[in-house]
Amino acid sequence: MTFPDRLEVPREVLEIARVLEEAGHEAWCVGGALRDTLLGDPHSDFDLATSARPEDVQRLFRRTAAIGVEHGTVGVIDRTRVLHEVTTFRRDVATDGRHAVVEYGASLEEDLARRDFTINAIAYRPLNGEWRDLHGGQRDLESGVVRAVGDPAARFREDYLRILRAIRFAARFGFAIDPATWQAARAAADGLGRLSAERVRDEWFKGLRTARDLETLVRLWRESGAAAVWLHGLRHEGEGVVPPAERSPPPRDPVLLTALLSDDPGDLLRRLRASNAEIARAEAVARGPAEPAAADEISVRRWLATVGSAADDLVALVRLRGRAESAPWIGTAAKIRERGDPLTRSDLAVTGRDLEALGLSGKRIGETLAVLLDRVLQDPSANTRERLLAIAREDR
Ligand code: ATP
Ligand code: MG
């Protein structure tokens, strides 16, 4: 792969670069957009790196947003109200494995040297078509290698998240991880425990969403030692738990995949500080039952009533496992839901109040509603006021 003479850069980005350059600053495209474009994967987020200070950037553009001024990033809002990140060249003055203290007044070379991997450390100056590739990013893109910029052990100690990023990029592009980089990543994996759960969760979810094949992603998390630190209860390989790519094409659902890959997904997601809704979803899936006792309508209605809103997730899991063909109940469930058969107490043609009017009170009301629902699950045509009141009277 050779660098093209000119790279197609979105017009608005070019315009921002022009304003910066005309004010006497350098403006370079950097990061993921260049990498993805060179790989033939169109990308819209072209980030700019500049010699201008954040306050210069804020002064030069009419509309800006202070999205990360403390680390040098100003959002420039273009005419179409799209935000573009413009980040001042930085050098690290202190790192602790989680955060970096940065300083401005750095050169492009210094800014590229603090980036994580060679494939992420290429720069292109859109105004004159100049390329800067000081770490062999082009070569590594061509041969498909994720390689740390500089001394890999030192780079992982500066920020342990880079271990997870290396895994994510390798799984996403089907790249190999350079042996020295991989060795250093494995040696540093214990340091992953110092990261915040939120950053780890973002990486895990992004990895699940973007990996070309999930098996590689899971294998690398495991082999690096990252899974042992953060993904407790991850299922073991050889059980065929990882769906092949064709069964899990993007867009993928990271919560569902976590439920598929883990013995106790609620616990795993709680450790990763996922949202309460995500944790509840994973717990409902784990609770099951994973499928109805049989494929007849009564069994399937009972199952739908038990699992409630987890039904779609449980069906999706059967598909991901490649077992949909031997699960005739999936068709039965679809028919039942299409017909709108009553499945919950609130679908019943009578309410607790109606039962009170019959003289029932307290616990008896709940028990009677359960009896009525079970009758209706067996025979949806029983869901009329008269029939249910008659049953309730008998049951009294
Ligand atoms: P994508 O957004 O597709 O996941 P990306 O490479 O754009 O990939 P970002 O997290 O958006 O990733 O970061 C933009 C750039 O900033 C990266 O390409 C890399 O040069 C640099 N970078 C990001 N995170 C780190 C890090 N932890 N250590 C060093 N450099 C980093
Ligand atoms: Mg990005």
The overall average pLDDT, rounded, is: 96
The CATH class designation of the largest domain is: Alpha Beta
Which ligands, by name, code or SMILES, are bound? Answer: adenosine-5'-triphosphate, magnesium ion
- Structurally, the number of domains stands at 4
Question: What do you see in this structure?
Answer:
With 396 residues, the chain is an alpha+beta fold. It has four domains: 11-141, Beta Polymerase, domain 2 (2-Layer Sandwich); 145-273, Orthogonal Bundle (cca-adding enzyme, domain 2), CATH 1.10.3090; 297-339, no CATH class; 345-395. It has 20 helices and eleven strands. It has helices at 11-22, 32-38, 54-60, 108-113, 137-143, 152-158, 161-173, 179-188, 197-210, 214-224, 226-230, 254-261, 265-271, 276-287, 297-307, 311-320, 329-339, 352-357, 363-378, 385-395, and strands spanning 27-30, 47-50, 64-68, 73-77, 83-88, 91-95, 100-103, 123-125, 130-132, 145-146, 176-177. A seven-stranded mixed beta sheet has the order 3-4-5-2-1-8-9. A two-stranded antiparallel sheet has the order 6-7. α6 packs parallel to α8 (179-188), α7 (161-173) runs parallel beside α9 (197-210) and α15 packs across α17. The model has no long low-confidence stretch (mean pLDDT 96). Magnesium ion binds at residues 31-32, 45.
